[in-house]
Design brief:
By secondary structure, the chain is α+β, with helices and mostly antiparallel strands. It has one domain.
Length: about 290
């Protein structure tokens, strides 16, 4: 009976089947629960323990890996502690992805006195054997991770190992904005590392997690993340006469490659020396 009914109404049958498949998929997405205890890939396996007080913070487990073109050369881990008053500048890093201008990974570097840097990358937390997929990333396939690392780890991974371009832009933030941004991301790390959440390509990706913490209103570039530096320039958070000139100044692939073998502290000093030469004095907050 059912088969005869479908044969007489093929398009209705297809619609019902498609609707059923969508319902099953939606149900599986809604019923999925994020977890902290999977077998993660090495570079996303550990989010740091954080001690946070009114005036200072400490990170226990900051990745300080070094790289060759073949992959990780050494997997070191360090600690990082400082005060919020010692925070000097915040730098926005963009790593364009293949496939079009719309796609990029973004991350943040925090500069402190004494030429010290610590950075944060927000990523889909992959399990061993998994590869990232943007469609699956919208369907609760991956958990969310907040990974803190040295500038050397974050930048040479992308330049030396992944052979990607890297752009480093200064952000125009006042002192209160800088400190609040850092504190909020530290608090967010504590939340994600104790109460798991799903990564989401549209709503909880590398860029819109940062934008939400910064209090920026919704914009399509928080999803089409390759356009995020243009939007920050439009908001006067990235300085420059034109975005094209700011982008040209921010490209650092060749320099990062030349610093690949430096220890982390020397890498930080070389990076900040180059950034100061290119961008001049400390960027002032947007008016």
């Amino acid at each position: 009976m059912a088969w005869n009914w479908i044969r007489k109404r093929p398009f209705t049958g297809v619609a019902i089947g498609l609707g059923g498949a969508i319902a099953i998929l939606a149900g599986s997405v809604m019923l999925a629960e994020p977890r902290l205890d999977r077998t993660w890939v090495d570079n996303l396996a550990v989010m740091p323990k954080i001690e946070l007080s009114q005036g200072s913070f400490a990170l226990d487990h900051v990745a300080d890996w070094s790289y060759s073109p073949e992959g990780p050369a050494q997997k070191d881990v360090v600690t990082f502690a400082n005060t919020f008053d010692d925070l000097r500048n915040v730098w926005f890093v963009v790593e364009p992805q293949p496939g079009g201008e719309y796609a990029a990974h973004t991350l943040i570097l925090f500069e402190f006195g004494g030429d010290r840097i610590v950075g944060l990358t927000v990523e889909a937390r992959l399990e061993q054997g998994e590869t990232y997929d943007a469609v699956q990333g919208a369907l609760n396939k991956f958990e969310l991770s907040y990974i803190w690392a040295t500038a050397r780890e974050l930048l040479t991974r992308r330049v030396t190992f992944l052979d990607k371009d890297v752009y480093v832009y200064p952000l125009r933030l006042d002192e209160t904005q800088k400190r609040n941004f850092l504190r909020s991301l530290l608090e967010g790390t504590i939340d994600v590392s104790t109460q798991p959440r799903f990564y989401n390509t549209l709503f909880s990706n590398c860029t819109n997690e940062l934008a939400k913490v910064a209090g920026l209103g919704w914009h399509y570039s928080w999803v089409l993340t390759g356009y995020s530096p243009q939007q920050l320039f439009h908001l006067k958070l990235i300085p420059g006469e034109t975005f094209e000139s700011a982008k040209e100044t921010a490209l650092l692939k060749r320099e990062i490659a030349s610093w690949n073998d430096l220890p982390s502290r020397e890498f930080d000093s070389a990076l900040l020396g180059e950034l100061r030469e290119r961008f001049g004095a400390k960027p002032q907050p947007a008016s």
